[in-house]
Design a protein that fits this description.
The protein is about 85% helix and about 0% strand. The N and C termini lie far apart (about 55 Å). Helix 1 runs parallel beside helix 6 and helix 5 packs antiparallel against helix 6. The radius of gyration is 27 Å and the shape is rod-shaped. The protein has about 200 residues and is mainly α.
Length: about 200
């Protein structure tokens, strides 16, 4: 905190940007993990109900309870397409249409889960460079201090070097969780996509 009171305006702007990026990335990580946990729990429950049911109508009646599950979206779209073809009874007339409905519903569900993931990946890759910009400006400040003092003393270069190190560290502190969170969440989304394909 003592160092923060002595840093220049450029380093302060860099740190404010990195703080905002950090808060945004943590918000995305927590919201995505929560949404995926809910989706997985409801998918397991829906699959149990799906396997127990003897008729499609029974599943359609209870599917609303498992709405956060992407499997429900796929089932609802396919069942709607089936009812349009047959009125709800008998074999389907066009299997390709049902397959297209399933694929588009699965794709839409994955797209919804992937929303804001590009922000997380961007923060993970850009934050070190934002910190590096602060580093460069801190070194420039150190050299300017050296030029002003006229002598190479620690007092002349210390504030600029401190700014450089603070912004470098801040860039890494923001980038590492964002990059790790992005990989972790994308891995869970791939699991959901695989489950949708199996369904």
């Amino acid at each position: 905190l003592d160092m923060l009171t002595h840093i220049g305006p450029t380093a302060m702007v860099v740190l404010a940007l990195l703080l905002f990026a950090s808060l945004w990335s943590w918000a995305i990580i927590f919201s995505k993990n929560s949404a995926l946990k809910r989706a997985n729990t409801q998918s397991r429950r829906f699959l149990r109900a799906f396997r127990k049911a003897g008729r499609l109508q029974e599943i359609a009646t209870v599917s609303e309870q498992f709405k956060p599950s992407p499997l429900v979206t796929v089932f609802d779209d396919v069942y709607d397409a089936y009812r349009r073809q047959t009125g709800g009874y008998g074999p389907p007339k066009n299997l390709m249409a049902l397959e297209r409905s399933a694929q588009s519903a699965a794709s839409e569900s994955i797209t919804i889960l992937e929303q804001r993931m590009t922000w997380l990946a961007t923060i993970g890759s850009v934050a070190p460079f934002v910190g590096l910009f602060g580093t460069v400006m801190g070194i420039i400040s150190a050299f300017l201090g050296l030029g002003t003092e006229g002598t190479a003393t620690l007092r002349a270069v210390a504030p600029g070097v401190a700014e450089a190190l603070i912004t470098t560290a801040a860039g890494l502190v923001v980038a590492v969780p964002a990059g790790g969170g992005s990989n972790q969440v994308n891995s869970k989304i791939r699991e959901v996509a695989a489950r949708l394909d199996d369904f």
